[in-house]
């Protein structure tokens, strides 16, 4: 008899078990068996505007295919790049340096182009120095000229000049041509030693 008495739960343990069952049962204990109507009522009370029926659209949200209200194709970018180390003699006549590049866009885009060119004056004839300038063209429209000066050198050694012109334009769908164009003025005798040209088409 003494052993049986020791295995009986204490009053505190009984109260704790009842509380645990009530907590686990939740609404089912308090309000009987749950059904669809009760579930919808609980959802409406705890999350206004949300219903079980609307869950059908969870895998196909109406705006999931757009970004900022615009289709993904609107943000598609394009780019191109070229560089050269071939010597190109230039004078006062505008000369296309290296090979033009083309960028194809699927819609209206902002086309940004950046070129760079390094030249030397002609050491044997340049007695007054050479103004070296270049610009970038987009579909034939020239950007701003960027100029550097290769000063004369008493020892008749070549003097370097470098420029990095940039251009930007809003373009429509299609293929667009970007070119780097340079010339030398004042004592027009210079040689482009190396060059590069890059272009990016971005939304906006």
What does this structure look like?
This protein has 204 residues and is an alpha+beta fold. The protein has two domains: 2-57, no CATH class; 77-202, Jelly Rolls (Sandwich), CATH 2.60.120.1340. Helices cover 18% and strands 42% of the residues. It has four helices and eleven strands. The chain has helices at 2-7, 11-25, 27-31, 36-46; strands at 78-84, 88-90, 95-105, 109-121, 130-138, 141-142, 146-150, 160-163, 166-171, 174-186, 190-202. The strands form two sheets. Strands 1, 2, 4, 8, 9 and 11 form a six-stranded antiparallel beta sheet that branches. Strands 3, 5, 6, 7 and 10 form a five-stranded antiparallel beta sheet that branches. Strand 5 (130-138) and strand 6 (141-142) form a beta hairpin. The longest helix has 15 residues, at 11-25. The protein is elongated and about 115 Å long. The chain starts with a helix and ends with a strand.
Give the terminus-to-terminus CA distance. 89 Å
Please report the total strand number as a whole number: 11
Sheet with the most strands? 6 strands, antiparallel
What is the second-level CATH architecture of the largest domain?
A: Sandwich
CATH topology of the largest domain: Jelly Rolls
Count of helical segments? 4
Q: What would the principal axes of the Cα set say about the shape? A: elongated
Percentage beta strand: 35-45%
Number of domains: 2
Low-confidence stretches: none
Element string (H = helix, E = strand): HHHHEEEEEEEEEEE
**Percent helix among the residues?**
10-25%
